[in-house]
Amino acid sequence: MEKLLIRKSGPLQGTVIIHGAKNAVLPIMAACLLSDEPSIIENVPQVTDVMLMSDILRHLGVTVDFSGDRLTVRPNRYAGTVAPYELVSRMRASICVLGPLLARQGKAQVSMPGGCVIGLRPIDLHFKGLQAMGATFAIEHGYIVGTANELHGAKIHLAGAFGSSVLATANVMSAAAIADGVTVIEHAACEPEVVDLANFLIAMGARIEGHGSPVIRIEGVERLHGVRYRIIPDRVEAGTWMMATAMLGGDLTIEGGQADHLGAVIDKLCETTVAIDKLNGSLRVRRSCDSIRAVDVTTLPFPGFPTDLQAPMMALMARARGVSVLTEKVYPERFMHIAELNRMGASITREGTSAIIKGVARFSGAPVTAPDLRASAALILAGLTAENLTEMVGVEHLDRGYQDFEKGLVRLGADIRRVTAEEGMVDRDRVTFNVERYA
Questions:
Q1: Rounded to the nearest 5°, which phi and psi values hold at 39?
Q2: Does residue 434 surpass a pLDDT of 60?
Q3: Could you give the CA distance from residue 375 to residue 36 in angstroms, rounded to a whole number?
Q4: What is the pLDDT of residues 166-183, one digit of tens each?
Q5: From its phi and psi, is residue 210 left (phi > 0), alpha (psi between -120 and 50) or beta?
Q6: Which CATH number does 22-230 carry?
Q7: Contact 285, 245 (CB under 8 A)
Q8: What are phi and psi of 253, to 5 degrees?
Q9: Which residues lie closer than 8 Å to 67 by C-beta, 6 or more apart?
Q10: Active-site positions?
Q11: What is the C-alpha separation between 336 and 191, in angstroms, rounded?
């Protein structure tokens, strides 16, 4: 088992380059199943979730080769239809193969998806959309078993209890690309990752209009061809670096940070006294004043404040001057990091779908466990501003979505390193804690 040893660090100074968007590349990899020609995907992050999706495609009979940040997918005439439990249970985005398999093979057996434990995330919208196009489903032995003699166009309303669904929109849009007739998705997700998938499909020969709006129109074509495509930068990674600078102070240039993907984040960070300059293809983030101003935040589907940045924002607000209210309207149970931040001295209480955050003057280092991907980033940021040593286990969650995050921090002068559990025990013995502070 690995862990991160994190110590209080100074302001961040320098430049970081944002990797490709993990949440964009996964449905795009699944969409490669729609063609029998090879596609080359560039700017692909080397994270665990991408490796898992590669293994799922290989299990289906697809050849996948990784070289640097370039992924080559060769579907040829693959015959597999089963996405197994041991792979799908580890990553929710695996459900993205459902639509392409039904459209191309006429059948699919996909294990019920897993991934981060951030609350109930039903897949009823996936069923609703694909059933409207002619698919039928059953749940057998923990697997989604879908069949479709021929998918046809339909008018589909994809609104759910908590708004639109990115993955359901991706599944329906991908299947509709080679279905017979015209499909109209109402209340479609507008996230940049959905737009990236649509642009990828269009490059393959699909006919899609309205992507980036709540209504997407897809006219099915007979076949799609292979393509060379570059993934958009990861807005969540960029937002995490922005919040790191807001917490630690400094002057950081984020190359690849796209302001139009981060409007709500930029707006809220500017309210906290952070200065953000929108440059040509990058963002410059600065915080020189001592205090952080408390703000209220509500997560919403794009273009609202992203739920994937809720945890890092909570860590930032826990150090702000005053009281903040953070309301989660995408995944109402996404609050498992509260207990871990409170272990470090934060003062956070939950009331329904909101967290009431009373800012504290400092964090204190402690052993913590990252419960999910985005919480791992929040705990790292808290540890970098905490007195004494912070030990974080659950590093495997970080590796699912951030490529070389701690290495980037080290390059900017932060004191953080990855060790085995045994090394961490030896290192901790050298640290003296002021026990009186906790009396």
A1: -125, 150
A2: no
A3: 39
A4: 999 999 999 999 999 999
A5: left
A6: 3.65.10.10
A7: yes
A8: -100, 125
A9: none
A10: 116
A11: 25
